[in-house]
Amino acid sequence: RLEEFLKKEVDLKLSTLPDFEERVIDVSEVEQLMNSINTIPAPCAPVINPQAPNAATGTSLRVCWGLFADDTIECYQLCYKPVSNERPSDEQEEHTVKVKETYCTINNLLPNTQYEFWVSALNASGISPPSEKAVYVTAPSPPIINSKKIRSCENAALVCWESRDMNPVDSYMVEL
């Protein structure tokens, strides 16, 4: 029967015409609503702490910061560069480190040198504004004692040393 039916020519006519409207559907409101359901706001700017005592060696600095808000944070972006009054050179190049914690120890720095630090927070929504900049200073290099110039007597001693630092050192502590 199917074979016979398929051989027949069928002409269908509809008794009424379909009434279709062309509709333009605006889904922007729905899209905004859907996006707002699972969206977390971009974080606020972190607050960088001033340099803590004993947070520096001649070649490293420990930098700490915090947040005022209860933002959702994936990581932090710590930026730094040496402070210089001269024209920028390769040594004044800006460096960036990504970290998960609210602290970071930066190594391979120059002794007795000022560095400018700032930090931003990152999450899925974007990056925060940068914190205010803070200046940290590495410790001076230990001086070199000139043993050929050492003189002593019963009540006194003369000890001479030379500094290896490019920047002036404020003071030295001599321990006996």
From TrEMBL:
Family matches, as CDD domains: FN3
All copies of the Fibronectin type-III domain together span 46-142
Highest taxon listed in the record's lineage: Eukaryota
InterPro entries listed in its UniProt record: E3_ligase_FN3/SPRY, FN3_dom, FN3_sf, Ig-like_fold
Pfam family of this protein, just one?
A: fn3
Tell me what this protein is called.
Answer: FSD2 protein
- What is the organism field in this record? Geococcyx californianus (Greater roadrunner)
